[in-house]
Amino acid sequence: MQSTDQENIVLIGMPGCGKSTVGVLLAKALGRGFVDTDLLLQAHSGHLLQQIVDQDGIDAFLRQEEQTLLTVAPGGQVVATGGSAVYSEKAMAHLKKGGKVVYLRLPLDEIQRRVQNIATRGIAMGPGQTLADLYRIRIPLYEKYADLTVDCAGQTLEQTVQALCAALGMACAQMRTQN
Fold first, then answer.
1. Where, in this chain's numbering, is ATP bound (predicted)?
2. Which of 12, 52, 83, 149 has its CA 20 to 30 A from that of 95?
3. Angle between helices 157-168 and 19-30 (to 10 degrees)
4. Is 16 annotated as contributing to ligand binding?
5. Is 17 known as a binding-site position?
6. Is 136 labelled a binding residue?
């Protein structure tokens, strides 16, 4: 699926799948701008994600996230979304209109190993919910909105970026790992 220079590449997936880190590397490899919607949300609200969840509740967090996602304009950027972006049909329709949506798929056990700061990370989850609960709820939504899916299991960041480029039909600059 060839992507054009003016289309955004929108990354979706569970917390810990690498949207932000892979997004920065992909933007560098493609010579594109990078937007992290979690950082935009924090800048717009003046609060950390976890503060919004704790002080205002999940519904308020999701409303603010939706408003932030709706500000993302097309223009050939790599966009890393928050894991809960898929809860908003309106926001996902907006993002799909301006680009290709790529689901970074990672198995639950790998997510659980990566996400150690669940209480402070700013994850939209209710009292008593676990990552496994979120996984069961969100996976069908990621699959619904994805134009492409890239499996990230057992891959290095560089391998994931190369897999993304291949899936998008784009040539990426080769990255060198610093030792």
1. 16-21, 121, 155
2. 52
3. 60
4. yes
5. yes
6. no
Q: Is 18 annotated as a binding residue?
A: yes
Residues 6+ apart with CB under 8 A from 101: 10, 12, 92, 95, 145, 146, 147, 148
Q: Which tokens belong to 174? A: 């080769």
CB contact at 8 A, 17 and 104: yes
Give the three-state DSSP class for 69.
Answer: helix
Spatial distance between the Cα atoms of 142 and 87, rounded to a whole number of angstroms? 10
- Write out the E strands in 27-151: 34-36, 78-80, 99-105, 148-151
pTM of the model: 0.91
Give the number of other Cβ atoms within 10 Å of residue 89's Cβ. 12
CA 32 to mean position of chain CA atoms: 16
Q: Report whether 20 belongs to an annotated binding site.
A: yes
pLDDT at residue 163, as a whole number: 93
* Residue 42, annotated as binding a ligand: no
C-alpha span between 77 and 98 (Å, rounded): 10
Give the model confidence (pLDDT) of 142-158 as tens digits.
Answer: 999 999 999 999 998 89
Q: Which two tokens stand for residue 141?
A: 């939504």
What residues pair up with 100 in beta bridges, in sequence order? Answer: 9
Instruction: Return the CATH number of the domain spanning residue range 8-167.
Output: 3.40.50.300
Annotated binding-site residue? 19 = yes
pLDDT of res. 119: 61
